[in-house]
Every structure is written in C-alpha cells, then in structure tokens.
Queue: 4 jobs
Job 1
Amino acid sequence: MDRDDPLEQRRHLLRLLLASGGAIAGSALLAPLVHAFGNVPKKLPPNQSIYDMRGRVTVDGKPASRSTPITANSKVQTASNSYVVFAVGQDAHLLRENSTLELSGADALADAMRLFTGRVLSVFGQRAAGKRMALQTTTATIGIRGTGVYMESEPDSSYVCTCYGAVALASSTNPEAREDIVSRHHDAPRYILANPEGGKLIIPAPMKNHTDEELMLIEEIVGRQAPIASAQGYSAPRRGY
C-alpha cells in the first residue's frame, strides 16, 4: 500500500471494516475509520449528496464542499489528486481524479450519464420495467438497469467492467458492434476501441483499477448491500431494490 496516497489509505481501512462484517462499533478499528472516512459507511441522509471528497472538485462549474448538492442534471469534475464519492437518488458514484462526468434526468432520478474523460465507479438502483439508464463514454454506449459498472474514458478507447448485473454494450462509432453482458463478479471486462483491432471494436480486457471494497462502500451510501462479499469469499443476493 502507498501510505502517502489518501485514497489508498481509505481503501485499506475499508477492507478492515468489511473484513469485520461491519460490526465494529466500540472496537479499536472505529477511531481510525471515522478519521479516514469522516464516518462509518452508512446511507446518506436525503439532504446530503457528497459522502467523501479530496482535492479540487467542482459541481456545475463551482467549487464543491461536503454540503454541495448534486442533482440528476449536474456536471461533476475533479482535478489532479482529487476524487469525490457521491449519491444521486438511488445511484452512487466514485469519480476519480482528472475526470468529467455529466448527469441528465428529472427530479432525483438520472436517466443518462456521460463520462467525457477520466474514470468512475458507479452502482445503479433497479429501474422500472422498460426503463434503462444510458451511459456514454468517448467510444461506447451502455444500457443498464440495476448494476455496478466501472468505466474509463480516453480519446481513442474506453474500458468498461460490468462488476455485476446486465448491460447492453455497443460501440458509439458502429452500433452494430455490440455485446450483451451478464456478470456476477467482474466476469467480462471489455475495451471498446475507436479503431478495430483484429477486425473487432469490442475486445476482452482485464479487471483493473477498482475494488470490491469500493463497490461495497458506494452501495452502502444508498442503503444497499452489494451482491459480492469478497471479505467473506462468497457472492450474495443484492438487497435494497
């Protein structure tokens, strides 16, 4: 672990919390967890959007603080050495450094999300029948319902890991290049390329740059339990829809 990296410190302490099964009240672990996260992971109150942030974060072009509201039509940006963990309605996100994310929707429910650049880990609540959340990167469009997804968006390629759930993945340059993915636990990460490689625009990729612990954290802040429990070594049904 890089002990000078504040986000990695939080990941390490979160692993300790999850390994304890969450029942740590009164234990020696509670103090450092509260210090690192601001509070033990739990569902955010209705009037709070941001769970944790570090560095320079803007929401709709204005500097953000812990009390800044983020809506279903907000644009969120992070600078170098910055990140923000936040929730909008039944969805939650961890936006990493040097990233720009734009949401669109009505009231507290976003129905579209565009990652212009950077990296984001997201979990989404179950949509009503016939409704999908539409995600977009530089090279991909993704239709989802309730699921967990990690995305990276670069000028000539995108990375998409369906951490769990089902997505309809397609190239934004050639919609005929598409794949329907059902994943239980990071089963089918993909690169979506601007230019074909071996005649293909969608190719297999490794699982990288995100963790089960982070998924558990962002599910927790919207009142759900992730369908994975890496600390206990098993997969469990997702709760809270």
Job 2
Amino acid sequence: MINNVIIVAGGKGVRMGGDLPKQFIQIGGKPVLMRTIDAFHSYDENIHIVLVLPLSHHDYWKQLCLDYGFRIPHQVVTGGDTRFQSVKNGLSLIKEGLVAVHDGVRPFVSQHLIKRSYEAAEAHEAVIPVIPSTDSLREITIDGNSRIVDRSRIRLVQTPQVFKVRLLKEAYSTDFKDEFTDDASVVEAMGEQIFLVEGETTNIKITTPFDLKIGETILNEN
C-alpha cells in the first residue's frame, strides 16, 4: 500500500520568544523540520511527503534546503488559517493508500512508532498514538468548581495519526467546527471508530525553549 505523510508546519514560534518559527530552529545542528521529514523518509524511501507551510515561509524553506544540502523529495503546499484548512490543502496532493498527518515539530518520532501506526491503519483505517497521563487531572465544572478525573481512563494524543486516504478525504469534505482539534476528531465526527496504538514519551512536540533542552537530551542519548 502506498504510504503518504502530510507534515504540518504552520507555527509562528510565539512561545519560543523569537522571530524564527520553531520548525526552523536548529537542534543538534539541523533544523527541527528537516529532522522530522528525515524520520519518515528513513522509514520508507518511497514515501510521498507533503509539507504544509505558510506562504510567507516558502522562500525561507527553499533557502534552508540549499544551505543544508537537504534533498529528500517532498512537495510544499500553502497552509490555511486553521490546522483543519492546512491539512485539507495537503490532502489535495494525496491520491491513494495510507496517509499520516504529523506535527512538523515532533522530530523524534521513532521508526517503530511510524511502522506501528501505518501497519495498524491497514487493518483499522483510523489510528492515533497515545500515552497515559502521569499527572493528576481535574475538570472545571459548569458552576466554576472542579472535580478529579480518573487518569487511568485518560490518554494523551500524539502524531502521526494515520488513516486510509479515502476515509480522511471524506472526513475533510465537511465544514470546519471548533471541536476539530486534530484529525481523529474530524474522522470521529463521521461516526468512525478511532484505534489507539502505544505512543512514546520521547515523541515530544517542541514548542518552548524548555522543549528544546529536552530535545537535545533525547538527541544525545540516541
């Protein structure tokens, strides 16, 4: 089955406290986004990679690829005002097989997790990686108070989220709703079941300077 991946990289880097968007920041001497793309190319050299970037970042990305001699084949498409629209734009370049949607700032996704997610999607059509919550959780109630949540029933969602292309295209034919926080929520709104696979604690999303420090540690240990 043909493997595709849509890598969404529309962040503006606000929480990083600088002008450079987080997906372009170096970690271990290489931009985060290049490490992310490399992870999927290492899994499958023939994978179809679609990179979603804001139009204002296209030229900068082209120059980065020249500067670093980055030659992994990929297509670039312009993102939208929301993640929903960005993924929808990416899907316009996908035709068949399986498609993963992955955060551009999750560069430490392992080959094992990518493989596990794609293989599960062949059987279950809609797959997301999750990890248990290690923190205690509280829910804010309607009256402004709070109550404890049973964390044994809670899972934290990661990417890549992998789907049959036909299914994800059908899901994204709908209009945007505020409750669409990820791709699984869009598919679930059609009444489809979402299959869970085991994620990884090292599959972090780099959004703050502290995340960069954790990322450097993960890189050094590997």
Job 3
Amino acid sequence: MLDVDTGVDDACALLLAALHPGLDLRAVSCVGGNAPLVDVVRNTLTVLGLVGRRDVPVGVGAARPLLEDPVDARHVHGSDGMADLGLPVPLLEPDPRLAVELLRDTVAAAADAGTPLTLVPLAPMTNIALFARLYPAVFARIGRIVFMGGGANVSNATAAAEFNVFHDPEAAAIVLDACAVHGVAATMYGLDVFYDPLVTDEHVARLREIDSAAAQLGAALVSFHHRRFASGGATIGDAGAVAMLVCPDAVRTERLPVRVELTGSFTRGRTIVDRRDWTGDLAHDPHGLAPAQVDVALEINGPWIADVWLRTVGGEDW
C-alpha cells in the first residue's frame, strides 16, 4: 500500500507499483504535500485510471500537517502538482472511507490473510501518524514500513531537512516512535540515495515510441523535470523506494538509531541519524540511544533501480 502526495515522482512510483508483476498494490492513501490535497487526489486517480487499475481504492486523507500550515512544492511539480500535462479529469472516484480507515482495513485484511502488509509512505506522514494514534493495535500488524523521507547527510527543503519530514516533523516522529513501540520494521529511503536513479533524454525518447498510456505518461513526467531543471537526466525520486522492494540488493542499508528534530530554529525536521560507535562511554550524552532502529539507505545502484522502472513502464516493447 502506498501513501502519496502525487507529485511527479509519486506518479512515477504509482506507475511502478501499479504495473510491476512482482508487486501487489492493495490501496493508496492521499495526503497534502507536494500539492494541495484536492490536486493530489485528482492526480492519483488520473494515474491509476490511465493504466487500468480501477480496482485500487484511493482514500482521501489529511489536507494539512498536524500542527503547522501546509507548504507545497508546486515550484518543483507544476501548478497542478503533476507536470501541468492537461490530462482529462479522471472518471474514477475516491473510496468512501477516509485514509485512516482505508489504512486500518487494508492492514488488517493483509494480516488476517497471513501476508502482513508493506506500507510505503512517499509523502509527509500525517496520515500514518493519525493511523498509529487512532488504531495502534492495527498499526502493530504492519509487516514493514518503507518510507521516502529524511537523509543522513543530505537535505533539500532547508539546509537541515528533507521536504517530506520538514512538512510534518511531528508526524514523522510519531511514526518512528510507533514503529519502536510496536516492533514494526522501518526502512528510510532518503535523499542520500534519492537522486541517483536517473532517466535520461535518450530513455524518454525511447518511451515516447511505445504505444501505451504508461510509457507516454512516464515520458511526459520525466521530460517535465528535464525542462524545469535544464537537465538531461531526472531522478525518478519516490519510485526508487518502490523499486527497492523488488530489487533489495540494489540498495545498501545500515540499521541505525533515528530521531526527528522538532524544536531547533535551523534544524526542525532534520532526521538525526546516529552513526556513532556505541561501544564507547556515552554517559555524557543526555539523550541516549534513539528508540527507533531504522534501516537507513546509504548507497544505491542507481542504473539498476532506473532500469526496473523503465522496463515496467515501457512494458514488453522496452
């Protein structure tokens, strides 16, 4: 199950999750982030409709962070949040359940069937934090959380913080704490690896030759970022977090204590990834070891991840 704020790279991730034969996309929940919630919902339904995944329920979630006013990223993703492609209004409708209810039902159904769900938040984790607080017993039944957010050494929204965590740091902190309390495994796919899987102009040209809605949409999304950033290669961003589910050996992770900074004037929203050697004398540290032990992605085989996305979106003609 994905949680998204669709977004150009969220749309790339949706294409991969919806089409890869090794993935079973059960549901999608939407949250305000890259764009306002109304745009996120429309964009998500558009992508799923274009690739024929009308079976995937889409839940409408939080329009704003837990505490602060929302700050979108339309300067990166376009005024509509998804590359201003002028796509037709989707015929699909969102699920009548709120996002937290869809999360509850989907997680419970998977656990009941003996196949605990992998939850992939690609957005500010407001929905996931609300789910953790409203339905803690069901949250505890999640098999694994793989989230796009944070960074051990890299930031973007501020000098200290990555956008998804910066947008709602309290939510990220709540989710990490809930993972620690309930023993839910967590993987952080952050900015240290986010930018490495690249799709080039040559890849886009090849996708444009393929007569499928997925290939045409994928080409248009990546081409938008090529133009916006005057670059011949664009990251598939959030899609990398989905791709690592099918090729885990392409990403090197290290299990490390992680906290979210909530109060610093210049560092609010930073993921504090503790890479110290804990065998020494730490009596002078008043904070101690962070409760959340997270598999932090530190290195990636970018071409491998990009190839997984290209072969999935391009289909048999790639």
Job 4
Amino acid sequence: MNKPFTKFLFAALACFFSACASPKFCTREIRTSDATAMELLAASQRAHGKKTFAKVHDVSVRYDGRWASIGPRFQPVLADTSFRRGSEERLLVGQCIIAQEHTGPSGEKFVIRTPRKVTVGYNGSLSTNDETRRAAALVADTYTMFLLGPFYFDRQGVVLAPNGEAVVDNALCDQVLAVLRPGFGFAKEDRVILFIDRSTKQLRRVRMTLNGLESTRGAEVDVTFRDFRRIDGILWPTDFDERIRVPFDLHAHHWKLISLDTNRGFRASDFAVSGFKNRAVRILRPLVEACEFQ
C-alpha cells in the first residue's frame, strides 16, 4: 500500500470514528471539589503509601516498551516510535521537573520538562519544532501522572467530582473525575477519570483527554496499571497498558517499569540535553526483566 493512500485511509478512518464516537467525560463546568471524591482520592493515596511518599525528593526509573502496529500511526509526532522504545527518567517531585532520556532505532531523544517550559534534543541537537516540543511536554506530564498515580493529583489546579463506577480487571472501581487546569503539556484544561479499586483502593486505571496538541483534541486514551509492587513503603505499578478509546478503540503501547530508585539526591542542574550526568548515572535497582512482554 503506497504512503499517500495510507495517509488518506488513516485520515478517513479517524473522521469516521470521530463522528460515530460518543463523549465519555462529563463536560459540565466544575469549579469546586466534591467531598466524596476528595476522600476517595485520599484513600487511594493512603493505600499507595502517602506517609512514605511525603519524604520522597526524587524518583529514578527505567522503562522498556513495545508499540502496537497501528494505533501509534494516527499520532506519529506524539508516539515518536523511532526514538521512544525504552527510557531512563528522573523526577524531582517537589519542583515538578522531569528529565527523560528516550532510546530507539534512530538514536536518543532527551526531554527536560519544567512547569513553564520544555527542552527537546535529538542525538545531542536541540529541536525548535513547536509541535515536537508540545508533544514532548504532553508525554512528560502524562508519564509523571502514570508514575505517581494518585499522588499526582495532590496539586493546585485540580478539581474532583464523583463519576460513577466501573469494572477494571474484574475489580469493581469507584470513578473520580479530575479536572486539571492547566492540563497536560500546554493545554488549558484536561480531564482524567481515576478508577479506584473499591476493595484495595489501588488506582487501577486512568482515562484522559489530550488537549495539548491540535491533532489530539477530542481524543481519549486510557492506561491500565498492573503488577503492583511495594518498594520502601510505596506501592508502584510495574506494568502499563495504553489504549486509544476515542475516536477509535485500538491498542497503543505496552511498557514495563524495569528499575526504580528514590532519594538519590540529584538536582535540576544534573539534567542536560546531552544526557544525564553526575549522580544521575548511578545503577538503578532492577525490578523485572526487559524481555518479559506478552
């Protein structure tokens, strides 16, 4: 199949599914948090180790992943599959700064995301492409949420409301709608549904809008968390499965947490687009084998 026809087919399918899809998120204006929703989030934070997490200054992780064959083709700039296969990432929790060193068949991609800006480098050279920067900011913000789980929503600009119930992996979950202002990346607003296990209070899934790019507005994606492990008093998911839900239902991405370490004491000055330096290069604690993919 030639490339022009493939692009036309993808565009036509996207328009068709977008027209057929029904919205899944509450769209009403929400300005104040509901007490029931706040308690559900607080219960999930306690289950994940809130007291211990309060002492975390920084988190270091390593991921390995596999992209689906079709889903990422609809958002090539966001997926950036030539560079985003595996990654090492450093998060300064209190400062909300994340640095990501992605690797793929085309080389290395480095992203530094602060609350006000994003810097992107490919194989050591800075990128000035606006869409690339916006996509990198969106990915950095959502990956911070995936890693921190319920702790991510303990910040300014988040309003919570009950959103019914649903079943995830045979577990009944209470849903909490979180309205984020600002949203992911450079979006003014995004909405996230948290699926909180009614029994264990684990955060089993998030479903989110992606308004940070013109090409993803109106899209909905969910990520399911599995294989939880308690490390130094904090419960972390080690398996992440992403599906596109709107405008079509397709598998997008599956990745695993390979290594994790906390409180290594690095600073924002340890981050540069040429790669990690100083204390940020120490060996991480291994969790699972990179090849353990289904």
